[in-house]
Amino acid sequence: MLEETNLVGNVYFSNYFLWQGHCREMFLTEHAPGVMAALHDDLALVTAASRCDFFAELFAGDEVEVRMSLGRREPGRITMLFDYYRMDGTAAQLAARGEQTIACMRRVRGVMEPTEVPEELTTALRPYEREPILAVAKRD
User: Which residues, 6+ apart, have CB-to-CB distance to 124 below 8 Å?
Assistant: First the structure.
């Protein structure tokens, strides 16, 4: 991971976005191979938005685990959530949290047109959907 660090030795911020892409592609290869194959044909998964919030620095030599889950599904769009953990033996420290929204598009006669999320992808993501978090207000 040394090539992913800056002169100070911490992981350069753009690598967190690179890791989002790697995680997404690994997921497609393992869980939705038909979608991965369609990317070589007329399907395009276009990144519409991406962000990352940083909580702790990561350094060269750190073991990092990136966990992806489904955040939201909208017509033709999916938002994936990413948690970046520094692994230290049995402990995991949350170092960053990110998200990426992709729009599903088809190439039709040289023009990109919106399309629905492929069913194979919807099915593959279903087990990774996060439970909604309910906020509970306490009154004294």
Answer: 27, 31, 32, 35
